[in-house]
């Protein structure tokens, strides 16, 4: 027995559950078989109780048919009636041949023997009557019919009496069998309940032996999930897959601990390295800022430009005064809006000042036009966006080209968005440069060019637009269909309006 138990414990969970299922099913099949056999026997006995009454009823009906067809033949003498008589006569003979013919002490057996003998006499008399009818012996077949009628009445009475006696006996037997059937049913129900109780206990025992180690493993896994890496999986020597899983989990958690320690060390080294880089970059930015501050003081520049404008106005140099005022407005906007949000209106105004300054410097050889829907100028956007785009169009597009350079600034609404386009007729831009700008890499490529320090780079513009509107498809660059020039398009979502931002 101990060997069997040990062998069972070493089985896999699949075979344990399979054996448990088969055992329970086998018990249920055996119990149902025993119950079925007992019930079948009892029901068979109940069914056989009234068989004798049914046979006697059939015998009485057949006797009635014989007497009726005899009478019909005597009245009509038709061949069809005679055939019916012989059919019913043979049927009746077959039925009463099964009655008792032995002399026994039972009253019912004696009555059956009496009915058997009288039935033979009755059929002999009916045959004689039929033959007399066929021989046209009227007196003989009338006398025979009268005697057969008396025998018929006696047989009917005897069969009814025997049927009643047997019915009373069968009723008593039926009551006994019904009580026996009830006892069998109660025994079967009780036995089934007992077997089901044992099966349930057995299933609970088996599932408990399987699920208990799993619950322990799940508890350890839950602790690890909450960060308690010091927990180990309990090893339960069940001999099945649970033991294998628990050992494998312990090996895995040991590997994870080693890996976490290595990651911590690498992270600490990387964090220290990043910290050193940030310190170096901050020191560099601080040095650059101090250098720029040492080069120019914005307030001093504004005051100087205003003084120059006043002096030019006093001397009657209106163009010089206008030029200086535009320069002052341009620089004041750049310093005042640095790092702050603005509106499209202010951005367009800054571009106007910038174009004016350049046309004064380069004798007005930059053709600048605007196609703007005025109602769209109140949308909110980051500052220093349009001027770098226009500057890029001038420096890398129309400057140095043959013919007149033209720039078109368009503002329109479409598909719940406001679009701002800067189109030039310059030399165009390469696909490689477009990809570098959209990937924020163009500054690296232009770092050592002569124009690298002019304004804010387009990659910086793209990055700030994407962060401001929280989407990527806000900036596109395309070659013009004519083959010359470039179109830079900014898509501003309508939801980012100034009114909505203030609300």
Strand content: 5-15%
Overall CATH class of the domain at 7-212: Mainly Alpha
- Series of secondary-structure elements, N-terminal to C-terminal: HHHHHHHHHEHEEHEEHHHEEH
Give the termini separation.
84 Å
**Globular, elongated, flat, extended or rod-shaped: what is the shape?**
elongated
What is the multimeric organization of the chains shown? Answer: single chain
Overall mean confidence score, pLDDT: 77
Topology record:
Layout: H1 2-9, H2 13-49, H3 51-76, H4 79-96, H5 107-134, H6 138-225, H7 241-295, H8 298-314, H9 318-336, E1 341-343, H10 344-361, E2 366-372, E3 380-382, H11 386-398, E4 405-414, E5 417-424, H12 431-438, H13 442-445, H14 458-469, E6 475-479, E7 486-493, H15 498-502
Parallel strand pairs: 2-4
Antiparallel strand pairs: 1-3, 4-5, 5-7, 6-7
């Amino acid at each position: 027995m101990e060997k069997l138990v040990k062998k069972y414990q070493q089985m896999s969970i699949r075979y344990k559950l399979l054996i448990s299922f088969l055992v329970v099913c086998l018990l249920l099949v055996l119990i149902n078989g025993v119950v079925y056999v007992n019930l079948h026997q009892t029901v068979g006995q109940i069914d056989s109780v009234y068989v004798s009454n049914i046979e006697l009823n059939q015998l009485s009906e057949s006797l009635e048919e014989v007497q009726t067809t005899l009478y019909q033949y005597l009245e009509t003498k038709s061949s069809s009636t005679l055939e019916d008589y012989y059919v019913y006569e043979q049927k009746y003979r077959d039925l009463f041949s099964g009655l008792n013919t032995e002399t026994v002490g039972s009253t019912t057996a004696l009555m059956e023997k009496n009915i058997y003998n009288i039935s033979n006499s009755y059929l002999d008399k009916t045959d004689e009557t039929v033959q007399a009818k066929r021989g046209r012996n009227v007196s003989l077949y009338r006398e025979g019919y009268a005697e057969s009628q008396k025998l018929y009445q006696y047989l009917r009475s005897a069969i009814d009496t025997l049927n009643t006696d047997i019915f009373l006996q069968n009723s008593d037997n039926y009551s006994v069998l019904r009580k026996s059937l009830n006892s069998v049913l109660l025994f079967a129900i009780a036995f089934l309940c007992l077997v089901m109780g044992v099966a349930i206990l057995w299933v609970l025992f088996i599932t408990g032996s399987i699920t208990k180690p799993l619950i322990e493993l799940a508890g350890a896994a839950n602790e690890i999930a909450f960060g308690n890496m010091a927990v180990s999986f309990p090893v339960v020597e069940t001999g099945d897959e649970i033991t294998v899983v628990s050992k494998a989990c312990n090996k895995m958690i040991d590997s994870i601990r080693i890996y976490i320690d290595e990651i911590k060390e690498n992270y600490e080294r990387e964090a220290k390295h990043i910290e050193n880089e940030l310190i170096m970059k901050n020191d560099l930015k601080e040095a650059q800022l101090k250098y720029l501050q040492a080069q120019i003081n914005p307030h001093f520049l504004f005051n100087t430009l205003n003084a120059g404008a006043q002096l030019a106005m006093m001397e009657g140099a209106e163009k010089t005064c206008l030029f200086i005022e535009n320069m002052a407005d341009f620089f004041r906007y750049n310093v005042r809006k640095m790092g702050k949000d603005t509106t499209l209106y202010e951005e367009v105004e800054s571009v106007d000042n910038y174009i004016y300054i350049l046309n004064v410097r380069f004798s007005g050889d930059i053709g600048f036009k605007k196609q703007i829907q005025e109602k769209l100028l109140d949308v909110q956007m980051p500052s220093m966006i349009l001027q770098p785009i226009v500057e890029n169009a001038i420096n890398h597009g129309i400057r140095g080209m043959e013919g007149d350079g033209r720039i078109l600034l368009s503002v329109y609404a479409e598909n719940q968005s406001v679009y701002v386009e800067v189109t030039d007729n310059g030399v165009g831009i390469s696909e490689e440069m477009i990809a570098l700008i959209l990937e924020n890499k163009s500054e690296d490529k232009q770092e050592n060019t002569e124009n690298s320090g002019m304004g804010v780079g387009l990659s910086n513009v793209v990055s700030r637009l994407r962060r401001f509107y929280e989407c990527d498809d806000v900036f596109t660059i395309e070659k013009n269909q004519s083959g010359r020039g470039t179109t830079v398009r900014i898509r501003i979502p309508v939801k980012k309006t100034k009114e909505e931002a203030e609300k």
